[in-house]
Amino acid sequence: MRDAMDEHGEYLVRLAFLYVKDWAAAEDIAQEVFIAYYKKSDQFSHQASLKTYLSKITINKCRDYLRSWKNRRIIFTDFLSNIVSPGQAPEISLVREEGRTSLADEILKLPLKYREVIILFYYQEFSIKEIGTLIECNENTVKTRLRRAKDLLRDQLDLREWEGFMHE
């Protein structure tokens, strides 16, 4: 268990953050993932890698979190606080360090079903087939969502930024 946490813990927090856009919630979700893995480790069949298995649990926990009332209340509270005192969100400062502010801004604005395929494909480097397994969609659906996400991004980014994204 300790080995799994050491090897995949940081990755799972980052993956959760890309879904929920909140570091504290992402850390909580990663902890819940390891608790679930500990309780049901005998059900892990080794048909997929441990990373893929834990990623699947993380994605499901993120979706549960995003559907929860707690999350909706937090989002509304954050929205109100940004109106009163606008500040820079942690994900924006993280992206600025990488020099890709506008691209990351636009990716984070995408609807979840498009954002997740972009993140899993380009940033986490999962294959179309692996993404389909993780989000429980067939490969054609993943390809369609990926294409639509890129179309949405193309509309939002200027030509120079778009070409840079496509060549990564």
UniProtKB/TrEMBL annotation:
Residues 6-68 form the RNA polymerase sigma-70 region domain. Residues 103-151 form the RNA polymerase sigma factor 70 region 4 type domain. SUPFAM superfamilies: Sigma2 domain of RNA polymerase sigma factors, Sigma3 and sigma4 domains of RNA polymerase sigma factors. GO terms for molecular function: DNA binding; sigma factor activity. It comes from the Bacteria. Gene3D superfamilies: 1.10.1740.10, Winged helix-like DNA-binding domain superfamily/Winged helix DNA-binding domain. Belongs to the sigma-70 factor family. ECF subfamily. This is RNA polymerase subunit sigma-70. It comes from Planococcus lenghuensis. The lineage of its organism: Bacteria, Bacillati, Bacillota, Bacilli, Bacillales.
